[in-house]
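Study this chain:
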Amino acid sequence: MHRDHDPAAPAAEQVSFDDFLKVDIRVGTIVAAEVYEGARKPSLKLRIDFGPGIGERKSVGQVAALYTPEELIGRQVAAVVNFPARQIGKALSEALTLGFADEEGRVVLFAPDSRVPDGSRLF
């Protein structure tokens, strides 16, 4: 298991609260999802609506091991929206959808346990 995914790994080095605030983590609703054909690991291409302030963003996530595109439509997820866009194969990812690794290393999406307005920021 990769160190970043190892539950026994020690905490990362300390950062200031101001550093934390630089990472803009928002909630959005998945409005479209499809299998990312040709990806090295089972991945889905997602389109996420982050509300009127940010709008829709594309994201590529290695979440196909636990989720089908159909079950993700309408689901809220958390994502970093202020990283630079990243080319992942032939797809452009404009947001980093957040999740945790389960015991088998599969990604479990991170989301609020109650519905909140799209675009709400994590604090």
The radius of gyration is 15 Å. The chain has a mean pLDDT of 93. Strands lie at 25-35, 44-49, 56-61, 76-80, 86-88, 91-93, 96-97, 99-101, 107-109.
